[in-house]
Design goal:
Nitrilase/N-carbamoyl-D-aminoacid amidohydrolase; binds D-[(amino)carbonyl]phenylalanine; EC 3.5.-.-; Carbon-nitrogen hydrolase
Length: 311
Amino acid sequence: MSARKLHLAVAQMGPVQRSDSRQRVVARLLEMLREAHSRGATWVTFPELALTTFFPRWSMEDPAEVHAFFETEMPGPLTQPLFDAARALGVGFYLGYAELAGGVQYNTSILVGRDGGIVGKYRKIHIPGEAATREGQAVQHLEKKYFEVGDLGFPVWQTPDAAIGMCICNDRRWPETYRVMGLQRVEVVMVGYNTPSGYTQWDEPLHLRMHHHLLSLQAGAYQNACWVAAAGKAGVEEGNPMIGGSCIVAPTGEVMVRTFSEDDEVINFVCDLSASENYRANIFNFAAHRRPEHYGMIVSRKGAQAPDGGA
Ligand code: ING
């Protein structure tokens, strides 16, 4: 099988503090976009909520205070330079941001093509955390308060280079996310994330954060025969540490390249897309081997029930 090469980059970000302006953040993103291009990459993945600090850690009631973290247009005047650079360099990108759309708040990412035009949009579906402030808890995780469930599903876009899909943070832990894209012959899944490593809200040792992150990406890539390019916002944001571990995973399930730091850092890898075709023609030939007639419960049942029908 002949090789089909796609040169991917992942642009991990160090922390974004509350006082950092959009201009300053966009300048960091631009620098990494240029770095990726200088290495020959043609697509770059940026993190979830890349333009701001991870604000769901705070309880806020004033809508104006909350909306300051949201974008009402994309591109807007402050993000336009990213689109201009994409066109000038011929480099496409994934960008996560908080979206205010007709009064509704979403945790969103867009895919921007190598011509600087928007290819597609997706909104995070599995929203983690709480809808209401937990009293007495120093750090909140209020994504359910600030974001509605995404209403766009898990689309895949056929770009001139590859079939590309998107995933945001917690969505990467759910096999359904990758499977819906796998069924659309996705070749590259781009993922942005912000995963705290400084506290637990249930009984789980902190070292497992990195293990579960990598486990989820590697399983999703292998079981759906796709490449996964994952970019985190890492380091200590407003006193709150977050994992790094941004990486590019092959359809073999292997991590091919991974960040070294918890700061702004570009990694890149020349991906052979024919690896997807190889798995899809053999062990994971869905048309030949899947048995959807036995999977009905996956869509008919939401919560787990004991075999005797109990709760
Ligand atoms: N962050 C987290 C994630 O899935 C989370 C959510 C909450 C992780 C609690 C760990 C513990 O990585 C986002 N942004 O979805």
